[in-house]
Amino acid sequence: MSQPLPLVSIIVAVFNAGKTLQQCIDSVASQTYAHKQLIIIDGGSTDNTVEVIKKSSEKINFSISEKDRGIYDAWNKGLTQAQGEWVCFLGADDYLYNSQVIENMIFKIQDLPDEIQIAYGQVALVDDAGKEKELLGQDWSEIKQQIKQVMCIPHPAVFHRRTLFEQSGNFNGKFRIAGDYEMLLRALKNGDAYSVMGLIVVAMRVGGVSSKPGNAIESFKEMRLAQKIHGLNAINSVLFLRIFKEHLRKVLWSILGEKYAKKLLDFMRYLRGLEPYWEKIN
Fold first, then answer.
1. Shortest CA distance to 227 belongs to which of 128, 123, 147?
2. How far apart are CA 220 and CA 214, in angstroms?
3. What is the pTM of this model?
């Protein structure tokens, strides 16, 4: 006798993202997988976000709009309402890549042993027109050691067992940018993840909280704090190099201005055979 299909809870944190939230909601509502729960946690938006939520109320299982302390506080609020065996976390600028994403992912992970509490696919970075700029996510066998040095799992593409939070706690609210990295370090300290390569789970618009040089540097500092919390005290070359690159980017921003710094950075990408990226970020 086959096992019943697991419920999947999708928790979306939003603040003043009325322009993009509808696409996020619709991408969940259009899933071919019926056993899903959509939870929207709004941080007290002052734009039209609340109107978008109300208009889509029949597609949402739970929503609330009140001030919070940031994305991880919002996700923790969502966890109090999550009933799914698997839980996903999205930002309001993200959307599920196509209508079969959850169905395809569950097909791959529903028979995983209970000790596997983290499963993930890939994330496509896209511009506002939906054009793919970069694909994030590597096989777990390639990054199992690297995760101890830097964030290398695309968190929007992660399916978490709800038991993970019941056993080891929610997101650490002291973090502003790297709380997902701290949680993954905690979850994978003595365990393994499961990767589904070739399955793009989420489209994520380029930009976001860590796209500006100052925020990116803060993100790396928070990653270093997370490592220290979990006993990873040695400075690692991977994180050091990324921090150096961000300081260089900050210097270029200040000398050339944002517009010309982005042009220079994209020219350097062109020399490496890569498509423009920085000029696509607002």
1. 147
2. 10
3. 0.83
